[in-house]
Specification:
The protein has a domain at about 5-140 and about 220-285: Rossmann fold, CATH 3.40.50.1820. The protein is about 45% helix and about 20% strand. The protein contains 13 helices and eight strands. Helix 5 (about 145-160) runs antiparallel to helix 6. The chain is globular, with a radius of gyration of 17 Å.
Length: about 290
Amino acid sequence: MNNYRSIWTALIDVPFEQSWISVKNIRTRYAHAGQKGKPVVIMLHGTAGSWEGFAENLGPLSKHFDCYAIDMIGCGYTDKPDMPYETDVYAQHVKDFMDAIEITQASVIGCSLGSWVAARLALNHPERLETITLLSAAGYFANAANMNRIKGARTKAVDEPTWENIKPIFDHLIHDEANRIPDIIAVRQRIYQQPDMPMAMMHILCLQDPEIRQKNLIADAQWASIQVPVLVIASLEDKDEYLETAKKVSQLMPHAEYVEMPNVGHWPHFEDPDTFNRHFIHFLNKHKP
């Protein structure tokens, strides 16, 4: 018998809440699961994504940690101020979120853009981090073809948010068609139908502009200066700049652990949550403060 997979089946037996909090006047959406007093984990999505990408991780990780998955500034159902969203802006928003919920230190999981933001946070506010985990690591290369693909697909999807325009985004993010579940496409469609989303997408996609991207890239010496423990997850079916970035930055950072996951694409934590959750729990347990 085939079990229907959805966001709800991942969360149906999980004690969790979805809420909003004012973060320096940015109304910020987040999901929370776990007990206060346990090590804090913050989860950061990719380009123009939302917290639902971590639906498969909140339950298992919340048995061990105090977990927050947030919609970053301009994304999901968080406020969308009229300004370019460069990596310093995202990182500051995450730091301000931590202040708003009175978190002194956290371990941060970031996927794609979220991994870039996690690394930037480690550079800008290292005292606030215990560890970082990079999924589909970004922020090292400026690949013109990939940048144009991201810009084209996201612009088309937000200008005309039909199922036919949004589904192809997930054809790239998720390796196995069986894991491209309707729920995750429907959530993204609803987000892109918001009236202020075209303006926000323009600001989100500023990082696909060659000049802006170049000044946001993290140089070798900066990667090498990151002192917190780092778990780098390499998705073996994400055969482009992300796999190469994972290999490269894991060699640069002095306290990095490199783990390969087969048969997964750009969202390894979503496509094979059992394997990712196991690796992450093991990693964090090794680095308990």
